[in-house]
Amino acid sequence: MGTKPKLERVYLNVPFAEKDLVKSLGAKWDSDTGCWYVAAGSDPTPFVHWRPIWPHYADPVVKVLGLPIQCWKCHTATLAVIACQGGDQVAFAHKAVLQVLASQLTHEELADVGAGPLRPRFANTTGQSIWSNGCVDCDALQGGIFLRENFLASISQGQADLPTITFAKVPVDVLRGRSELA
Ligand SMILES: [Zn+2]
Known about the structure:
The chain is an alpha+beta fold and 182 residues long. Helices cover 20% and strands 30% of the residues. The protein is globular, with a radius of gyration of 16 Å. The site of zinc ion has 8 residues, from loops.
C-alpha cells in the first residue's frame, strides 16, 4: 500500500478512429487497460480535445476506500474501489473518479488488496465502455449502480469504516461530480 500518490500516467478518451492521430502526437498505448495515455509530466495542450482528466500536484490528497463484495459472476470475494474521503467528506467513486484513480493505482497495488484493475469495460446496460471496477478473479464489470446503492447504504447506516486502499490526488470538481465526464 503506497502513501505517496503516483502521477505517472494520464489516460485519454480516444475514439478508435482517432488512434493514429493521438499516436502521432506522442500518446502511448497501454495494453493492460486498453487505453491511450501520456506521461503525467507532458504538456497537456495537444490532448485537450480528448478531454483528459488531468490530475495536478495541487489537487487534494484523498483516502481511497474499498468495499468488500462478492463478484456477481464468479462469486469470488473481491474489493471494489467505492469512495474517496477528504476530511469528513466521503464521495462515491463514480466513473470519472475511477478514471483519475487509474492514473495513480497500479494493477499490482490493486491486486495486493484483492481488487481488480480500474479500466474501461463494456456495460450492456448503457451500451458503452465505462471506467469501472472489475472482479479480481474474472474481471467482470462490477456495476456502478449496484456499488452506489451499497455505498449509500454503508454511509446512511453508519457502518464500520470502509477499508483504506491507498491515497490519491483527485480534482475537487471531479469528486463533486461536476466534471463533464462525470
Ligand atoms: Zn468474478
